[in-house]
Write a structure and sequence with these properties.
heterodimer; A: 173 residues; mainly beta; OB fold (Dihydrolipoamide Acetyltransferase, E2P); six-stranded mixed beta sheet; five-stranded mixed beta sheet; disordered N terminus; disordered C terminus; B: 699 residues; alpha+beta; Four Helix Bundle (Hemerythrin (Met), subunit A); Helix Hairpins; 5 domains; 47% helix
Chain lengths: 173, 699
């Protein structure tokens, strides 16, 4: 994966379909289905008590205790500016490994529901369409069409790693 | 070599006793060779044998062992089969040598070619790392011992200890082919050998040159360390001068007259950072009368068996990566939580099984024990840091031309390794401050009727769950007026501000503050003290100062015993629980209306024990929805930070709890007002408040 290439010019520098093929964890947010690389997923857990951290953006729900490690949790619905919805028994926290600067960071992402794991072949994957100027899509890896349904493939490093999270506290004060 | 000769003069019984360890090693090696073949033996095995043999004065054996080691070094081109033959032959050979027999030398095991400078760093990185750690430990011990020798130069035991340290370093360096280190260690060893056989008195010049050598070795080791970590290769420093000086020191005749003329102190080379400037003998801190020359030869104790002592310390400790310990700490923390969750399970009360209850109680006890032991594994005595500081004081006092005696107490006090390591910088800056600003020159001292020798005392002790480190001097003390004036000049304090004594003293920790009249090379650039404050803050500690003008100054560093665990007060605001570190709390109470007042209609204040303190509402700072808005319905917690007190308003208190501190991680490192987090008894995360940050808040 070459996340950095995506930022500069999302549509031109899209990696070849072959590189993007592989297993994806498909989850749902509202009516949309999204996919993240299975390689990036550490574990999936039910929703649990999240300790809020003051002075953080609204989509940062707080921190949880993952077997002795304290990890941040963000709500993907809020991150993608979707309408907030109450958590249900199907709400999950997907714990992903992301690159954070030089280090690897574990982070929880709250999603509506986890659907399935799909093995996507290159033929399933298309580049993100050009939404025209003003629509930045740096964290989209591409689109996958399976049985006529579109899954949006996310580059989770880009979703979580743009400067919004880094040093966010100082911005809020 | 002199040392070996002296050992051969000792009674034969001693040789036999010492030889056992070489024999044991040979036995062990042959067994392993027989069972596992040559592939199971490493160069390090033979290196150890070589060291032991040198210790016992078995020159020939040592040389062959060292040559044999070369064949076993990884990267050696000797084929396995040949290695096996060589090892078998060699070990056989060693046995005969040990029996006192003579044998034809094995040609392959003749001494190898002269050691090359900074060797290839073979692929033996692990071995070199081990060498670095071990040597550093020895060097620290050596420095401490040398300072001891400065006050009591006759202690044979201490001289022996230093000798052993250098000896080991020499052995290891030689084996890893760090020629420059080996040469220096060798010369010093020779020098010390004269001392321990009573042929040379330990005089300040001798101490100087030995300390200089430790500095040299330290620098070389640092260079090697950089190299194996992938840094640029540095040519080893030129040691000719140093070697010459060590040699010169060893030729000093034992007669006291000659001590003055020992060439070492007159050597004008000045490129050594720690070289004391040539100065008259009287300026040395412990300027005692030179010790009586040679100790009568009859009093010389035979060299103590080196091997035995080393071995006992080897058995007594294991080196563990701190990362592993941290992991263990984490797991134990989790275990404690899991255990608490089980024993607080409401369903338990309906179970009538006494056996189950007894087992559970047992589990609780064991868990508590495991937690205690885990915590204690990270503890180290503070003595090591004190020794380093002692060395600094010695060098600084010489350079400043002041006579200073250092005293220590409580070196055995244990504290977390991480804290101990963080402490070395603040300690250094504080003693610098004492030596440079606190202590007067000898003349000044005499004028004010003080003893011309000044004292600096380092003490450590436990007090109410914290460790207190005191650094006190009997110097001129802090000048309150001068500090206040300067702080006002620099805009650190508003003119006319009312400050308590301790608040005034704490001003010296402000960045850019310096009371020294003139800038000296030692300190006075105004950087030292704010470094101290930063470090101490980082360690969640506090600084207090007591000072009386003309009498002296005492700094108190109050630090937590461990970084891993704090005692916290759990408070509630709305649905959130927060943890306040107990050490920053002075009291807590539910305010009555009469103690509350407002300033200009907005700033809220409370009168606590006669002083007016500002009130900070936590819910406002953190934008929370509180359960209570009225001050009189909630609780005020009086907290203190940086000498400033204020009241923190919270909904309610939950109780006191010991918590394992965790970092919130990179993501939240800039969030103001949080010092970290901890996992509470129910498995949820609680945030630990940063008292200072909350007060400064938006500012």
């Amino acid at each position: 994966m070459q996340p950095t290439a995506l930022v500069a010019s999302p549509n031109k520098a899209m990696p070849a379909s072959e590189e993007r093929a592989g297993k994806y964890l498909i989850f749902r947010l509202g009516s949309e289905e999204f996919g993240v690389r299975v390689m990036k997923v550490r574990e999936i857990m039910g929703i649990q008590d999240v300790t809020p951290v003051p002075h953080t953006p609204h989509f940062v729900k707080g921190v949880i205790n993952l077997r002795g490690k304290v990890i941040p949790v963000i709500d993907l619905r809020l991150k993608f500016d979707l309408v907030p919805e109450d958590y249900t028994s199907r709400t999950c926290i997907i714990v992903v490994r992301t690159e954070f600067g030089e280090d690897e960071l574990m982070m929880g992402t709250i999603v509506d529901e986890v659907a399935e794991v799909l093995n996507l072949v290159p033929a399933d994957i298309e580049d993100t369409p050009d939404f025209g100027p003003g629509v930045e899509t740096p964290y989209l890896l591409g689109m996958a069409k399976v049985k006529d349904k579109v899954k949006i493939l996310l580059d989770i490093d880009q979703v979580l790693n743009n400067n919004e999270l880094q040093g966010l506290g100082s911005l809020m004060l | 070599m002199a040392q070996r000769k002296s050992q051969q003069e000792t009674p034969p019984a001693a040789i036999v006793a010492e030889a056992r360890s070489v024999r044991e090693q040979i036995d062990d090696l042959s067994t392993r060779l027989m069972i596992g073949g040559a592939g199971k033996l490493t160069a390090y095995d033979f290196g150890a044998l070589c060291t032991a043999a040198t210790n016992e004065g078995l020159d020939v054996l040592a040389e062959s062992a060292s040559a044999l080691a070369a064949h076993f070094r990884s990267g050696s081109k000797t084929p396995l089969k040949e290695r096996e033959d060589l090892a078998t032959k060699g070990l056989e050979h060693f046995r005969i040598l040990l029996e006192g027999g003579t044998v034809e030398p094995i040609p392959e095991l003749a001494a190898t070619s002269a050691p090359t400078e900074m060797n290839v760093y073979a692929e033996d990185v692990e071995m070199i790392e081990e060498f670095i750690t071990e040597s550093r430990e020895h060097l620290v011990a050596i420095e401490g011992k040398m300072l001891e020798l400065e006050t009591d130069s006759t202690s044979a035991e201490v001289i022996n200890a230093v000798f052993r340290g250098f000896h080991t370093i020499k052995g290891l360096a030689g084996f890893l082919e760090f020629a420059s280190i080996q040469q220096v260690a060798h010369e010093v060893e020779t020098l010390l050998d004269l001392a321990r056989t009573g042929k040379l008195a330990i005089t300040p010049p001798v101490v100087d040159v030995v300390l200089e050598s430790t500095d040299y070795i330290k620098r070389e080791i640092a260079a090697i360390d950089r190299k194996i970590k992938g840094g640029p290769a540095a040519a080893s420093e030129n040691n000719t001068d140093l070697l010459a000086r060590v040699k010169a020191a060893s030729t000093g005749e034992p007669a006291p007259v000659n001590i003055q003329s020992t060439p070492a102190t007159e050597d004008p080379t000045d490129d050594w950072p720690t070289t004391p400037e040539p100065e008259p003998q009287s300026a040395t801190p412990q300027a005692e009368a030179p010790h009586p020359p040679a100790i009568a030869p009859t009093e010389v104790t035979p060299p103590t068996p080196l091997r035995e002592e080393r071995r006992s310390s080897d058995v007594a400790s294991v080196r563990i990566e701190t990362a592993k310990l941290d992991h263990l700490m984490n797991m134990v923390g989790e275990m404690v939580i899991a255990q608490t969750l089980i024993s607080h399970n409401p369903n338990l009360s309906s179970i009538k099984d006494t056996r189950l209850m007894a087992n559970l109680a047992q589990l609780t006890r064991i868990t508590a024990d495991v937690q205690k032991v885990t915590t204690s594994m990270r503890m180290v005595p503070i003595g090591l840091q004190f020794q380093k500081t002692a060395r600094v004081i010695r060098d600084l006092s010489r350079r400043a031309g002041k006579q200073i005696v250092m005293m220590m107490s409580g070196e055995d006090t244990e504290l977390d390794k991480a804290i101990a390591e963080e402490l070395s910088d603040p300690l250094l800056h504080m003693v610098r401050n004492s030596v440079d600003h606190g202590i007067e020159t000898a003349e000044e001292r005499l004028l004010t009727g003080k003893d011309r020798t000044a004292h600096i005392r380092l003490a450590a002790y436990h007090q109410s769950g914290q460790i207190v480190i005191e650094i006190s001097d009997d110097g001129r003390g802090l000048n309150k007026e001068k500090i206040l004036k300067k702080a006002t000049d620099r805009g650190l304090v508003k003119p006319g501000a009312q400050l308590s004594d301790s608040e005034i003293f704490l001003l010296i920790f402000e960045a850019g503050f310096s009371t020294a009249e003139q800038v000296t090379d030692i300190s006075g650039r105004g950087v030292g003290m704010d470094v101290v404050r930063r470090h101490v803050q980082k360690l969640r500690g506090r600084i207090d100062i007591q000072s009386e003008q003309g009498v002296g100054t005492t700094f108190f560093l109050k630090l937590p015993l461990t970084l891993a665990i704090i005692e916290g007060l759990v408070v509630v605001v709305g649905d959130n629980r927060y943890i306040l570190p107990i050490f920053s709390i002075t009291e807590m109470f539910r305010p009555r209306p009469e103690v509350l007042s407002t300033v200009k209609g907005k700033g809220e204040m409370a009168t606590v024990r006669g002083s007016l303190l500002p009130i900070v509402r936590l819910h406002q700072r953190f934008n929370l929805e509180p359960r209570v808005q009225e001050l009189t319905e909630g609780m005020l917690v009086v907290v203190e930070s940086q000498g400033k007190q204020y009241c923190l308003f919270v909904d309610d208190l939950v109780g006191k709890q010991e918590v394992v501190i965790k970092s919130l991680g990179e993501t939240f490192k800039d969030v103001v007002g949080l010092a970290g987090c901890a996992i509470l008894g129910d498995g949820r995360v609680g945030l630990i408040l940063d008292i200072d940050g909350i007060f400064r808040g938006r500012a």
